[in-house]
What does this fold into?
Amino acid sequence: MNSDALLKRPASASPAQKVRVPGKGVDASGKKLKKADITRVRILDAAAHVFRQKGYALTRISDIAKLARTQSSSIYYHFESREAIVEEVLRIANGRTRERVINAIGALPRDASVRDRIGAAIHGHLEIVLAGDHYIAAHIRIFDQLPADLRKRFLRVLDENAELWRTLLNEAQSEGMIRSDLDLSVIRQLLIGMMNWSVEWYRVGRLSPPQIADQIAVLFFDGVTKR
Amino acid sequence: MNSDALLKRPASASPAQKVRVPGKGVDASGKKLKKADITRVRILDAAAHVFRQKGYALTRISDIAKLARTQSSSIYYHFESREAIVEEVLRIANGRTRERVINAIGALPRDASVRDRIGAAIHGHLEIVLAGDHYIAAHIRIFDQLPADLRKRFLRVLDENAELWRTLLNEAQSEGMIRSDLDLSVIRQLLIGMMNWSVEWYRVGRLSPPQIADQIAVLFFDGVTKR
DNA sequence: GTCTATACATCGATAGAC
DNA sequence: GTCTATCGATGTATAGAC
It folds into this structure.
């Protein structure tokens, strides 16, 4: 359940990232990883795992170190600080979520209806949120636990994902698909709320994520009322 | 924005609550409050405020003390520990929420339809959640930040409120009002998710809480699709 | 009931040997 | 790159005077 990180390396390196030279073979898509990179990923995986489980403030560097089978002090060779770790975890989580939703939409036939595309996006988002991916679960869980300044810095990147939904819903509206007594912005937040809150109550064994996504789609498009 | 706590005093006093004798005049409805009680409330108000703002783990006893215009050490005269404070804040928040929803339903005419009653409950819940009540906002914000054992202890009381919704939706279903392809339990969680997540994005100035409640009700009953 | 002082624990981060 | 040792800051909680 670990050992899979780096969606993309720090785009414009966070402020005080200890610069480690890429060497020769470390591309987003490349395969050659130096030892340091492997360790780095192991630390990130461990961090995501612990953040998800204990929340931000309760996560100790020593917890991460333990799970990553290394020493607290060794972590500081790979990351500048605890904040730098959490930043990277959030970055990766955001990237993965976005990527998944985009792919889900992209997998549809070119002439798919807006409704189908929104449906696909719901499935993509919900399934990755509930997939057990530590990065994403951690993201949702800890985001509002972050110190105010750190959170503020991330609102921008968070908004990139919101933009995606905004676009989808705008399209739906301009096709005349949406009731005119609804506020698009509120609707978007409600939909995202339903999906994200699901990590609070979802338990394996009952309905599967795709089944829950179906329920969300039904509720979102048609409501609970029998006709 | 403060100075209003105690919905009811600790029903079965939390395990290690420092017992303070009620004296003569301290009832849930009574008015005579001893100095200690007033201070206690001031501390709770301050705590709710800070918990809401900074989350659980980031809230320091000293933050609470400062806002309550007292000393960290003085707080320990009124509460056994930081956990005891948070427990009381949660208890009060739960009670208020429940009370509000029950009242909202109770205010309806006797023969109101289930749909109306669910609508009233949505309004009641959402409005108190967004009302700016620090206790309730704090509750929603910090609940999943709590240490596992503390959280577990509270699941029971939390479930009392869920029970309320469960009942409402069951009634609706037995009246044949709800699509048969929907899972009642999931629907309930989605509805609660929409409402609770709203504290994450609600900002004063745009739509008012009653307006948002209307949007939620529309979405919940009929979906976004124009007919 | 509230104050000052302080014990005691925890934890992030650094130093420096290997 | 990882280890041991340790500093320094912070924060909960207690002791005891007033």
